[in-house]
Specification:
mainly alpha; DNA Cyclobutane Dipyrimidine Photolyase, subunit A, domain 3; Rossmann fold; Serine Threonine Protein Phosphatase 5, Tetratricopeptide repeat; five-stranded parallel sheet; globular
Length: 473
């Protein structure tokens, strides 16, 4: 019997357009499929609660898809190097294939594992199954990593078009089953309290659901994305981010589907795929990005530390309806519209002067699409401390943002229902509503809905002063 080929699944929980699976099939060997939950290697960046909920259901879907093709997905928990040694010894695998991860801890761990297995005579190959371009190979004219998105994106557009995605194998030859853990025993799902009801109502993890969502977006939304992506109350975005993070679809699949359906009109969406690539490019070039400002001057920024203010922000009780709507959407569904993310992040950093890393960690725990590169890159962009950061003097006005991107107040009324009876004129600034309007709506400011935590004008002035002093260092 031919020695088995081991496929180590990670953030590539799909069968279509999966280079590691394709490489195993090419050997014509029976396949051993393995997923390892290696929390220790990730350290402080082990998956948050919402990500673990998604992971459970995505692994369940992948196991069913593999099982239908005759392959058992083995679940093991612990140190990846030790588990790989054990599985290789028990199965007699002579080749190991995986798709690369780009988190700093994963790069270190995987490099050590690859070198060790090759020294023992195994065939070991890793592939790019998560990005369009290898981050370390994208270089500016000076031969270094890009620090600004626009030239990076131009370089992406100048590169050859992505190859068409490959189909999932119809059949696989499975190796004899090896005992593993029960997925349920990993306790990835919440027990009591069960906070995942909104996630269950909002999402269906797994490759089949990802393909269906991509097809619907390509057909009905991609061409209009440039016009609808900022309308927070509309279904104008793809909602593909968690599927991309967990590798239930590849960016190549997304690129090709949108290009085929929308042509040039799909470029605004493809640009967002480019931003995802850029964040991974930054993370590989600057592994400290999740923990430290890329602009060293911000190391001495005079952050405030106010637990009560942070708690109010997390609960959507800031007194600014647009901020509160976004934070409540996040808590309920594990996802927040990107425009609302920017508004909420700007409020934490610039209105409250609370550390961006606190917001980053909250998002890490509550987002189903929590991605180390995107999350840290986005927070540093808003903070003004990252590469290609937003201008430090750009302080989102939550009222004006709400009036512009939620003009009918539909988003606020859905997520902040205590304000639903206010008119459009006052829905984004209830403190300016006349007493009769508040009484009609059943609102007692400070009791049924909070007064604003800070005054926008004074908070903006305070933030600008702090940023000016930091940049002058």
């Amino acid at each position: 019997m031919t020695d088995p080929a081991l496929v180590w699944f990670r953030n590539d929980l799909r069968l279509a357009d999966n280079p590691a699976i394709a490489a195993a099939v090419k050997t014509d060997a029976p396949v051993v499929a393995l997923y390892i939950l290696d929390d220790a290697a990730a350290g402080d960046w082990r998956r948050g609660g919402a990500s673990r909920w998604w992971l459970h259901h995505s692994l369940d879907a992948l196991a069913a898809d593999l099982g239908a093709r005759g392959v058992t997905l083995i679940f093991r928990r612990g140190m990846a190097a030790s588990i790989l040694d054990d599985v290789i010894g028990r199965t007699g695998a002579k080749s190991v294939f995986w798709n690369r991860l780009y988190e700093p801890w994963a790069i270190r761990r995987d490099g050590e594992i690859k070198a060790s297995l090759r020294e023992r005579g195994l065939t070991v190959e890793s592939f790019n199954g998560a990005l369009l371009f290898e981050p370390a190979k994208m270089r500016n004219k000076q031969g270094g990593p890009f620090r600004v998105f626009t030239p990076f994106w131009k370089a992406c557009l100048a590169a050859p078009e992505p190859d068409p995605p490959s189909a999932a194998p119809k059949k696989l030859r499975g190796a004899p089953a090896l005992e593993g853990d029960r997925l349920e025993d990993w306790r990835l799902l919440p027990k009591k309290p069960d906070w995942a009801r909104g996630l269950r109502e909002s999402w269906r993890p797994g490759e089949a659901a990802a393909i269906k969502r991509l097809a619907a977006f390509a057909k009905h939304g991609a061409a209009d994305y440039g016009e609808t992506r900022n309308a927070v109350a509309e279904e104008g975005v793809s909602r593909l981010s968690p599927h991309l993070h967990f590798g239930e679809i590849s960016p190549r699949q997304a690129w090709c589907a949108v290009t085929a359906a929308a042509g040039d009109a799909g470029l605004p969406f493809l640009r967002e795929i480019g931003w995802r690539e850029f964040c991974h490019h930054l993370l590989v070039a600057s592994p400290q990005m999740p923990d430290a400002p890329l602009d060293a001057r911000f190391s001495g920024f005079p952050w405030r530390h106010d637990g009560a203010a942070f708690d109010a922000w997390t609960k959507g009780l800031t007194g600014y309806p647009m901020v509160d709507a976004g934070m409540r959407q996040l808590w309920t569904t594990g996802w927040m519209h990107n425009r609302a993310r920017m508004i909420a992040a700007s409020f934490l950093i610039k209105h409250l002067l609370l550390p961006w890393r606190d917001g980053e960690k909250w998002f890490w725990d509550t987002l189903v699409d929590a991605d180390l590169a995107n999350n840290s890159g986005g927070w540093q962009w808003v903070a003004g401390s990252g590469a290609d950061a937003a201008p430090y003097f750009r302080v989102f006005n939550p009222v004006l943002q709400g009036e512009k991107f939620d003009p009918q107040g539909e988003y606020v009324r859905r997520w902040v229902p205590e304000l639903r009876l206010l008119s459009n004129d006052h829905i984004h600034k209830p403190w300016e509503a006349p007493p009769a309007a508040l009484a009609f709506a059943g609102i007692v400011l400070g009791k049924t809905y909070p007064l604003p935590m800070v005054d926008h004008a004074s908070a903006r002035a305070r933030a600008l002063a702090a940023f000016e002093a930091t940049r002058a260092q």
